[in-house]
Amino acid sequence: MPTAHNGDVELYYETEGPSDRETVAFVEDVGYGAWQWGWQHAAVAGPFESLVWDNRGTGRSDAPPSASRRAESGSEAPGPYDVETMAADLEAVLSSHGVRKAHVVGAGLGGMVALQYALDHSRARTLTLLGTSPGGPRARPTPTDVREQLLISEKSRDELRESLRPAMSEAFFAADPEEVVEWRLAEDAGPAAQRAQFAAMDAFDASDRLYEITVPALVLHGTADRVVPVENGRSLAEDLPRGELREFEDGSHLFFLERSKDVNDELLGFLDEHAEQDLE
User: Fold this and answer.
1) Which ranges constitute the DSSP H helices of the chain?
2) What's the predicted TM-score (pTM) here?
3) Residue 76 above 90 pLDDT?
4) What structural domains does the chain harbor?
């Protein structure tokens, strides 16, 4: 079981595909485990090396409290977290695995981590940003009622299932995604860590620094995203110096699960275009 360390925080990761190929590192959304990337991870592994890891507070990675929380209240509850620290977690994982350059793919909170990673560290070759936001005062926030539906008070089958409702299309949810619920039970963050990750998302603001991110960036967004409204993706693509936008008509927040073939075609085409090595 490969692990990396950022300070005293242990971070679990795993890879698939040829180790002599360029690495594609996936960063999951708020509260979700690495199951989220199952539809893309398998498609990428082969022409590339695919790397998935568990964010702090999620899956097999540690869920630490901050030093300030421990000092002030003695609480061992997870968080609060911030995106800068989570970007440093990604750096620890890539360094541990010996990655020189990586194509970083992030959804929601994971997209924010990818943006921060490109600002703070030097290993990012490209960014692919799905259903994410630059943050800041001009961003369209998650509506309050949607946030309440996403939050869980316990990690139970019923709550995990119902909290998928605002992130999926009605048709996909009606198909009764019990397999996804099982994966969530095994890999997702618990309630406290989920809230700690939401706090990181809420505090994030890269809106005034996007001009510094000069790597190629592909922005993918569903036009019916209730969690991160599509206006965020549009402004993100416009403000990134090498940003390009692909919208998925009527796509939900988890459009990359629901429309995995189309998303994978976009992703692999983008990665192929910007890969350093010959993939023939």
Assistant:
1) 38-44, 67-73, 83-96, 109-120, 144-150, 157-162, 170-174, 178-187, 191-203, 230-239, 255-258, 260-274
2) 0.94
3) no
4) 3-274 (3.40.50.1820)
